[in-house]
Amino acid sequence: MIIYGLNTCSTCKKALKAMEQAGKDVVFRDVRAEPLSETELATLIAEFGDRLVDRTTNDWRSLSDWLKHSEAEDQLAAKPKLMARPVIHDGDAYYLGWDEAVQQVLLSE
């Protein structure tokens, strides 16, 4: 299982801690330190579409108008920190966020 996020993100830290406490074999990948490849990004865009970009952040608001109106891939390539997080890859499944539904699926396995 891989958790994609930022090492400074409190939600990512909560997800990682909960998974480890549940005995899951988890690898954490900071997308700022190790950006997603084009293939990885394309897979996540295909899975989540525009939901992969967190448009509620100051980072998104500070983007140029051109970049704000560009594709999600371009926005995330320019600023990996814009990725909604965490993204969890477990086997063939992908999950976005750490809400109750995601927790219930991943922690009850």
Automatic annotation (TrEMBL):
InterPro entries: Arsenate_reductase-like (IPR006660), Thioredoxin-like_sf (IPR036249). SUPFAM superfamilies: Thioredoxin-like (SSF52833). It holds the Pfam family ArsC. It comes from the Bacteria. Belongs to the ArsC family. This is Uncharacterized protein. It comes from Parasedimentitalea huanghaiensis.
